[in-house]
Design goal:
Layout: E1 6-11, H1 16-28, E2 33-37, H2 45-51, H3 55-60, E3 62-64, H4 67-70, E4 76-80, E5 91-92, H5 94-102, E6 110-114, H6 123-127, E7 131-133, H7 146-160, H8 175-191, H9 201-214, H10 218-234
Parallel strand pairs: 1-2, 1-6, 2-3, 4-6, 4-7, 5-7
């Protein structure tokens, strides 16, 4: 893992000051790639004020209209979340995430994704990420300021960066390839009646978790997409869902 391959993604940030403080936290840990998805006003005095000497990180931040676009070139994406639930399982600590990332090839781009100050990431946004992580806090008060959360994750990753390189050379499929596979898979599974057309996301989220654990490479994604294509061809005489 190299610091230059670590990306911080902020989704729907509501306070310019928080964006500035995140820039400062990133620069404290030697990180510079900031991506903003549908943010509040970025060119704002509060953002400049709290960025302090990290104005270069703020000025270099790239803006996106969707999280999917922001993650396209990332092989590893980590959704940060405080909530547990049906679609939020296998949640790692920042330290565990750093250990898992260290085991990956240094060429992989890693994105840490942070949600809105008041509501975090939506279930759909969490589903776009390969892994999930949370910062263990006191039960009495678990809420952290956005910049505090970013700093903790950046610290854990920067500790592991530029240390022992992974011997594994297997290249994971990036987010763009995974999302293309999921779109094809959903279309095919709807066609053969496996998914409920009124709520296909219910089962698709489970499939996303399965394939996220599998950590597919590009060839494996191609094999699965080829299988979906063959199913499409074979389903030309489909008479409807069994039972």
């Amino acid at each position: 893992m190299k610091k230059s391959s670590i990306t911080i993604v902020l989704v729907g940030t509501q306070s310019p000051g928080n964006i500035g403080m995140v820039c400062r936290a990133m620069k404290n840990m030697g990180l510079s790639d900031l991506r903003l998805v549908n943010p509040c006003q970025v060119d704002h005095p509060e953002a400049h004020k709290f960025a302090v000497s990290a104005r270069d990180v703020l000025d270099g931040a790239r803006r996106f209209t969707s999280l999917e676009d922001a993650l396209k070139d990332c092989e590893i994406s980590v959704a940060t979340t405080r909530r547990h639930g049906k679609y939020r399982q296998e949640i790692w600590t920042p330290e565990e995430v750093a250990e898992k990332i260290k085991a990956q090839p240094a060429s992989h781009r890693v994105a840490l994704v942070f949600g809105r100050e008041d509501s975090g990431l939506t279930t759909e946004e969490v589903a776009l990420c390969r892994w999930q992580s949370t910062i263990p806090t006191a039960d009495e008060y678990g809420s952290l300021n956005l910049a505090q959360a970013v700093l903790i994750f950046c610290y854990e990753l920067s500790r592991e960066a530029n240390t022992k390189a992974a011997t594994e050379t297997r290249q994971l499929a990036d987010s763009a390839a995974m999302e293309a596979m999921y779109r094809q898979m959903e279309k095919t599974l709807l066609r053969i009646g496996f998914l409920n057309p009124e709520n296909p996301a219910h089962i698709m989220r489970t499939l996303r978790r399965i394939y996220s654990r599998a950590e597919l490479d590009e060839r494996e994604v191609a094999v699965l997409r080829g299988m979906m294509s063959q199913i499409d061809w074979g389903a030309s005489e489909f008479k409807g869902r069994k039972g």
